[in-house]
Design brief:
single chain; 197 residues; mainly alpha; 10 helices; 75% helix; HTH_TetR; DNA-binding; HTH-type_TetR-like_transc_reg; Homeodomain-like_sf; TetR/AcrR family transcriptional regulator
């Protein structure tokens, strides 16, 4: 049996913790659950990360970075409407293929709000930094137009909310998003939308 390096083990903790936090949130997920999922003891887990907060911060940072990288890759060499549609399509594909990424994102926002209300600003500082990086990543391909950037990200947050509530792609609640050109429904989604009307 090949032994994992500490870095490989940290990576496996981040992957396992992403799944657990996405499902249970920060307060509903124990380090014992994460350790079991990884197949390590809690003391070993705490050698890799000083505590649950550090694990959550690492997972939240990864979640934001992965989202930023999806936008970077999708918009590479594109500008304006082409970039907009490529980024919208890539993000839609990400949350369709890996729903735990969206679940984790939503858990991050809830955790930041609760931490801020309790006077703990560390979560918020890290998440705001990551969100600004996402903002900057989409801003340039959209022509550095603040209105376009705001609209794109606002529609993205609306889509996050609708998907989080369980509205399937193509449902009529997405109609305004499709009409605005923020995302183009597939023929199958358009047919499903017509059936829901």
């Amino acid at each position: 049996m090949v032994r994992m390096s500490a870095e490989e083990r940290r990576e496996s903790v981040i992957r396992a913790a992403t799944s657990e936090f996405a499902r249970g949130g920060y307060h509903g997920t124990s380090t014992e659950t994460i350790a079991k999922r990884v197949g390590v003891s809690q003391p070993y887990l705490f050698r890799l990360f000083p505590g649950k907060k550090a694990i959550f911060l690492a997972v939240a940072e990864r979640c934001l970075r992965d989202t930023r990288e999806v936008f970077e890759k999708a918009s590479e060499g594109l500008r304006g409407e082409e970039a907009l549609h490529a980024m919208a399509e890539a993000y839609s594909q990400l949350i369709a293929d890996q729903p735990e990424k969206l679940q984790m994102q939503l858990q991050v926002y809830v955790t930041v709000a609760a931490a801020e209300a309790a006077g703990d600003h560390e979560f918020g500082e890290m998440v705001r930094k990551g969100w600004l990086e996402i903002w900057d990543t989409v801003h340039l391909p959209l022509g550095a137009d603040i209105g376009e950037t705001t609209t794109f990200l606002a529609y993205g947050m609306l889509i996050n909310t609708l998907v989080g509530m369980g509205f399937p792609p193509g449902h009529r609640v997405y109609g305004g998003i499709y009409e605005s050109g923020q995302a183009k429904p597939s023929r199958k989604d358009a047919d499903a939308q017509d059936a829901d009307a």
